[in-house]
Amino acid sequence: MFHKSLWMQNYKQSKLFVWIIFMILFIHLPLYTMMTLSNWRAREAQPYQYYVSEIHVFNIFSGGFLSILMTGAAVVLAALLVGLERNTRRNDFTFSLPIRRRDMFLAKWLLGAGVIFTFHLLNFLPAFFMFQSSEFSHLLTEYSWLTLYLSPVLSFILVYTFALFIGTIAGEMISQVVLTVIFGLFPIGAWFLFLGFFQSHGGRFIYPLDYNVEQVLTYMSVLTFPFDHMGTGSDVYPFFLIGLGIILFLAAGTLLYERTKVEHNGEFLIFKQLTPVFLIGIVICFSLLGGTIIASLFMGAAPGRIGAFWFGYLVFGFFSYLIAKRLLSMNLTVKNR
Which key words tag this protein in UniProt (predicted)? Predict the structure, then answer.
């Protein structure tokens, strides 16, 4: 895990994006905080009333565009450390070294998690103290500085850990990114597909039940954490879920990385026994999506909508089967210079 050669190799293949992450955090935390405070002061000087609330604090330190950029950055960083290594077949050499694969995987995780944690802290502190020393400091009473820091940074590390875990299943960089997005949103996405099927066949939306199920599945969707799970000082539930997710995905990723089959580098999946499962899953999901889309175009009688649903289901299912067959059999490797 602490082999110098591993750290040098991991940093070399990801150093450009590592510093892009630093710039994202620098622009959105200290720089954006400075601009926001200046903008608020200018608006207060105007004759009309401008109301600033605690939600604006959330948008600066956790929500908004920062979550979008950092979620994407965490996924891409994981893909550079695992997926790109498979595309270039660089790990054919790495795996021949007298270093345990567990140490290789943990070194990748420590590099990414350390980068996210450290760079976020370095940019968070000046932004927080800038806000704390301003006339808008009363807006921070809802949150402690620890909460404002831990909620987003642990969410980003969770996304990064999950993307690394997916990288142990995917055979190359593009499939790693695609599968991370799909499985990161799968619980809530599958629920919406089910609702589409249910409503296309005459079912009605039951608000309390559907809303509660949706909330539970949102908590189970990894990629929603940077956006929806901002904890307060007395709310430890999001922190528990995030911590549990990091531990589980790190343990599972380490276990699978030790069983990586390098002969399948460049293919969509590393473990070929998963191919039938993915083929069936892809076809069913896209069939349901197609049926829901086509049924939504027919808002008339129930029989018409049901027929439209199954027409879309079969058409999308047929083409998704053909595409999935090609996708799962592809091999994408590039020359490593």
Answer: Membrane, Transmembrane, Transmembrane helix
DSSP letters for 267-306: BSBSSGGGHHHHHHHHHHHHHHHHHHHHHHT--S-HHHHH
The per-residue pLDDT for 183 is 92
Instruction: Count CB neighbours of 68 within 10 A.
Output: 12
Give 243's DSSP letter: H
CA–CA separation, 279 and 325 (whole Å):
7
Q: What's the CA gap between 43 and 46, in Å, rounded?
A: 5
Q: How far apart are CA 132 and CA 134, in angstroms?
A: 6
CA atoms within 13 A on the CB side of 74: 37
Tokens 């999001």 belong to which residue? 238
Say if residues 320 and 261 touch (Cβ distance below 8 Å): no
Q: Which residues contact 296 (CB under 8 A, 6 or more apart)?
A: 196
Closest CA to 254 of 165, 155, 163: 165
- Within 8 A by CB and 6+ apart from 179, the residues are 166, 169, 170
**What CA–CA distances, in Å, run from 324 to 281, 282, 302?**
10, 7, 32
Q: Are 177 and 80 a contacting pair, CB within 8 Å?
A: no
Model pLDDT for residues 257-306, shown as the tens digit of each residue: 988 877 778 888 888 888 899 999 999 999 999 988 888 887 655 667 88
Asked if residue 309 has pLDDT above 50, the reply is yes
What gap in Å lies between CA 287 and CA 280, rounded to an integer?
Answer: 10
Residue 267, φ and ψ in degrees, nearest 5: -90, 170
Q: What is the 8-class DSSP label of residue 50?
A: -
Residue 2, classed as helix, strand or coil, is coil
User: pLDDT grade, residue 228 (50/70/90)?
Assistant: low
Q: What is the mean pLDDT of the chain?
A: 82
Q: What is the pLDDT of residues 111-135, one digit of tens each?
A: 999 999 999 999 999 988 888 888 8
